[in-house]
Design brief:
Helices cover 49% and strands 13% of the residues. By secondary structure, the chain is α/β, with parallel strands linked by helices. One of its GO terms (molecular function) is DNA binding.
Length: 327
């Protein structure tokens, strides 16, 4: 019994201190305080929402550039590039620049036009045909912006981008404008000019160039050499005597090499330089043209013979003959 009493004496019946939960210092302790806190919280949420909306708008306005397989991208049916635009030193320089950076720094713009047989998206170019061709030939992905565009929007973006870069020839611009009118994209040249922000007169002149007969265009060394100011005089010459101009144009187109562009213009329009240079005279062997004799306006004579047409022995005899002839 004494042991039990001793254990009982060791029991403490004092209250055990329970930890008191901390009350946040900023917790409102009155109804008015609770209302004020709720209002303040609402303002904070509203400010946060405004900030999030601003970030979202900025994200939506951001331009997303994707790397696409150039084989899945087709030229636009309004494409305004002549095939000669994809050749020469300028285009090779563009390819070298893209190859050096590993991609086209300035992205092209495309729109989705459906899916291929493999179920993958295919695209049509709005602008950037030369950059696309360069990447295609280099075998590398092309950096592109994908956008939803109507035909009119695609045409306007293509025209404006190329005009601002100032690397389209007058004839290429005219071909693009004429195609848009022919396909009913715009009801008139005035509407087209208004849509792209160009002067009606410039658009009309470009269309004049693109509307010239094919034989007239072929008479020039390249369609890219045609100038805006030539449109009206060439059209006037064709309208005045279409048959005679067509025959003369065919003769000029058959020349090898072709005459300079300004000389072709003079001949077709009856300008002052029209009789300043005779047509090259062709040399034939076994019915095939092997060279020509050409004389420029200053009277200089140039004899051209195709490579391989003159054996070494005959070449030596020709030089000896010319030396004796000119003594």
């Amino acid at each position: 019994m004494s042991k039990l009493t001793d254990k009982a004496k060791g029991i403490s019946f004092d209250d055990v201190d329970e930890p008191t939960p901390e009350v946040p210092a900023d917790r409102p302790r009155t109804a008015i305080g609770a209302i004020s806190a709720s209002i303040a919280m609402g303002r904070g949420v509203e400010a946060e929402n405004r900030e999030l909306r601003a970030k979202l708008e900025h994200f939506e306005d951001a331009t997303v550039v994707e790397l696409l397989d150039p084989k899945r991208i087709k030229p636009s049916r309004f494409a305004n590039r002549h095939e000669l635009s994809f050749a020469g030193a300028d285009f090779e320089g563009l390819k070298a620049e893209i190859a050096g950076t590993g991609r086209n720094v300035q992205p092209i713009k495309v729109r989705r036009i459906g899916q291929g047989a493999d179920g993958k998206d295919e695209f049509e170019i709005a602008f950037g045909h030369r950059r696309h061709r360069a990447c295609l030939e280099l075998g590398i992905p092309v950096a592109a912006i994908i956008d939803e565009l109507s035909d009119a929007q695609l045409f306007s973006e293509m025209e404006r981008e190329n005009r601002e870069r100032q690397d389209l020839s007058p004839w290429e611009q005219g071909v693009m404008y004429k195609r848009a009118i022919d396909e009913g994209l715009f009801p008139s040249l005035r509407k087209l000019a208004s849509s792209i922000g160009a002067q009606v007169g410039n658009v009309s002149t470009a269309v004049q160039l693109a509307s010239l007969p094919a034989e007239v265009v072929n008479a020039f060394p390249s369609p890219l050499s045609l100038q805006f100011r030539w449109g009206s005089v060439l059209k006037a010459a064709v309208d005045k005597n279409p048959d005679a101009v067509a025959v003369l144009a065919a003769e000029l187109a058959a020349m090898t090499p072709k005459l300079p562009a300004k000389e072709v213009l003079a001949r077709l329009t009856g300008g002052p330089a029209a009789s300043s240079r005779s047509a090259p005279t062709a040399f034939k062997a076994n019915g095939k043209v092997v060279g020509n004799w050409d004389q420029d306006p200053k009277g200089n004579v140039v004899v051209r013979i195709k490579a391989g047409a003159l054996p070494a022995a005959k070449e030596r005899r020709l030089r000896e003959f010319l030396e004796k002839l000119l003594e």
